[in-house]
Design goal:
Order of helices and strands: HEHEEEEEEEEEEEEEEEEEEH
Number of strands: 19
Structural class: alpha+beta
Strand order of the largest sheet: 15-16-6-5-14-17
Number of domains: 2
Radius of gyration: 26 Å
C-alpha cells in the first residue's frame, strides 16, 4: 500500500476514535462527578520503537498515526448547591468508595447519594457507600442527616423540642498513588487496579453540594469542529492519493 494512502487512512481512523470520545464527553457534561476523557496519539514510528523494532523501518520513518488508548483527567469539577442532605461534593483530592455488586470497592466523586429501603447510604445504582466501618446505615427514626467536612455522618432526632445528635460513622475518603493507573469502569467509577488506597488528608466534604463533570462544553464543541476538519482533510488526501495511484497504474498498463 502506498505510504500516503496508509497515512491518510490511519488519520481518518484516529479522528473517528477522537470523535467518539469527544461526543461521549459532551453527552456527560451534566453527569455528576464524570471525568473528562482524552485520547492519546502516537505514530507508527514511535510504536515500533517502543517494541524495540525501530531499526526495521527506513530513515524516513514510515507513515501513519495510531491511537495510544485514552486517559481520564482528574481535575476538580465545579460544585453547585443543591441543598440535598446526601449530595456530598468533595473539595480537594480524594474519592469516595462504593461497593459494586461483584464486591469491588470502586472510587468515585459522583456523590449524588440517597438511602435505600434498609437505610443504607447508596449511589443511584444502589451500591452502598463505604465508611470506616463498612456500609453506612441510617436509623429509620432519623429526622435529619448531617455530614461534616471531615465526612463524619450523624443523624438527628427531634423529640419534645430537643435535638439529639448521634454519630454513625465516617465516610471513607481515599486517594491512590497514581490516578492514571486506575482502570475506568466508566467516567464516574474507577478501579484502583491493585494500587493500595490511603486516607485522603486534604479532601473536605461539602454537604448539600454536587460536583459537576470536569468538562467544558464549549471547548468540547470547538474540539469537535477541529476533529471533523482533520477527518475531512485526511479523507481528501486519501482520495487524491488513490487517484494518483490509479493514474500511475494506467501508465504502467499502457493506458
Amino acid at each position: 500500500m502506498p505510504k500516503g494512502v496508509y497515512a491518510a487512512a490511519s488519520a481518518m481512523w484516529v479522528e473517528s476514535r477522537a470523535l467518539d470520545i469527544t461526543a461521549r464527553n459532551i453527552a456527560h457534561t451534566l453527569t455528576p462527578g464524570y471525568r473528562k476523557e482524552v485520547m492519546q496519539r502516537t505514530s507508527f514510528v514511535e510504536e515500533l520503537a517502543n517494541q524495540g523494532r525501530g531499526r526495521a523501518i527506513k530513515q524516513d520513518g514510515g507513515a501513519g498515526v495510531l491511537t495510544n488508548g485514552s486517559r481520564f483527567l482528574f481535575t476538580e469539577g465545579a460544585r453547585e448547591t443543591t441543598g440535598a442532605p446526601l449530595d456530598l461534593g468533595l473539595a480537594g483530592e480524594g474519592f469516595y468508595q462504593v461497593r459494586s455488586p461483584d464486591g469491588k470497592d470502586l472510587l468515585t466523586r459522583a456523590a449524588h447519594f440517597t438511602t435505600d429501603k434498609q437505610g443504607r447510604i447508596v449511589n443511584p445504582d444502589g451500591w452502598p457507600v463505604i465508611g470506616q466501618g463498612g456500609p453506612i446505615t441510617v436509623p429509620p427514626d432519623a429526622d435529619r442527616i448531617l455530614v461534616d467536612q471531615d465526612g463524619r455522618v450523624s443523624y438527628e432526632v427531634i423529640q419534645d423540642g430537643l435535638r439529639n445528635e448521634t454519630v454513625i460513622d465516617q465516610l471513607r475518603i481515599v486517594t491512590v498513588e497514581r490516578n492514571d493507573r486506575m482502570q475506568a469502569v466508566n467516567g464516574q467509577y474507577f478501579d484502583p487496579a491493585g494500587q493500595p488506597v490511603r486516607d485522603a488528608t486534604s479532601a473536605q466534604v461539602r454537604q448539600g453540594t454536587l460536583e459537576k463533570a470536569n468538562i467544558e462544553p464549549v471547548q468540547e464543541l470547538v474540539d469537535l469542529i477541529a476533529i471533523q476538519r482533520r477527518y475531512d482533510a485526511a479523507q481528501k488526501a486519501l482520495r487524491e492519493q488513490s487517484q494518483a495511484g490509479s493514474g500511475f497504474s494506467d501508465i504502467l498498463r499502457g493506458g
